[in-house]
Amino acid sequence: MDRLDALRLMLDVAEAGSFYSVARQRSMAKSTLALAVTRLEEEFGARLIIRSTRKLTFTHEGEILVADAPRIVADWDAALNGLRDDGPLSGPLRATAKNDFGRNHIRPLLDSFQLRDSDVDVTLRLSDSALDLICKGTSVLRQVVASTGWCEWQSNSARMRV
Question: Which fold does the domain 91-161 belong to in CATH?
Fold first, then answer.
């Protein structure tokens, strides 16, 4: 269980007022829930909840964490949803190509792409010299060598010859 899951559990405990009801609602052992809270306490270096057989009381540190936790969880969820969003494309796209090929073939494609997806910040680097893709932050490189008849697509994570 990661920290965020433990934080969500702690929020549930704060809302429900008991370990038992949260454990039952989530179909998990009460000891698993208690261990998650204990690990949070160890990580924060402070006791967050004072537990007795009859009630739970949040310490000052626990109250501060419970006050901040909804924002932390919401920010994390929003960040994940933003990365997984199937909506319009956005962000930087850096492409590199040889001078003539880039001017004649890639630039018109990127121009029409940018008209369709205006939130993408397109940069086209034209060069006849060899480039270090990672160092230059290039997303896509297309290299065509007419004399050998092969075409090479390369990205930061993959390389393919056609």
Answer: D-Maltodextrin-Binding Protein; domain 2 (3.40.190)
